[in-house]
Fold Peptide ABC transporter ATP-binding protein.
Amino acid sequence: MKLLEVKDLKVHFNTLDGLVKAVDGVSFTLNEQETLAIVGESGCGKTVTVLTILGLIKKAIVSGSILYRGVELTKISQKEFEEIRGKKISMIFQEPMSSFDPLYTVGKQMMEVAMKHLKIDEERARQLCVDMLKKVQIPLAERRFDEYPHQMSGGMLQRIMIAIALLTNPDIVIADEPTTALDVTIQAQVLNLFKQLQKQYKTSVIFITHDLGVVAEVADRVHVMYAGKIVERSDVVKLFKQPLHPYTKGLLESRLKKEYKNKKLPFIEGVVPPPTNWPSGCRFHPRCPKAMEICRREEPVEVQLNGSSVACWLYHEGGAR
Ligand code: SF4
């Protein structure tokens, strides 16, 4: 069942350099209890998309629709958002250290969320938060509860962020590169814990990442974003077995693999273009090894193929895949 439906979302900013079209016509749905990964390089618009869903983007020109359980999130007030953000839809940020206030104990910061959203007294909030710390495997939870963020490791803080995100048993957790700042071994532990708790809490997740290894670990479906648009949608197995869009293929090929030892690593030529000046036609054409004449002139619309969907002229009639 659909929990969230985003339709033709555009998020533009007026800047001194011109109009930044950070998100430029993005549509997707999130179903109950599924994990949707949104993948792409930095600057592709994935973080702006989720911050807009949470009503955290200021001074932007927003159009399109974000429907959550029948409520149009682009139309509600900040006060109404307070009832949804952190309670029904919560977020785990990339940098655990900067997400906590260094002046307060982690316990106090957890309790604040619990008391605000669950309307419970201090004693019950403390018990709930200590129990959550145990669930995210913080050793000596009662003692750690009264410690400050600087007394914790990055991995511990990230697990506490997961605890806070799940405190209110939300419908949706948005995780923005939650393991990027962690060592690889800690990353795996945090991801496993996250997956286990997601199942237990029956939460839907939007997972933002640039790391396809992480996608393979967590996602049910994957949307690949490039230059403010979604260029491919697929289920996770198909995406790895049969990628369609040249950009997705480039991302997959540029992952570190054993056979690349002592060889030059494949990479996608060029850089993501500036959002004030997206290229004409297909926005990937200046970097695409398969670009054709039509790609420079006309923007490809998405076509369906074997249950996936791709925005590329190669898959339109007459395209030379
Ligand atoms: Fe490459 Fe053309 Fe497809 Fe864009 S539409 S990805 S330029 S082949």
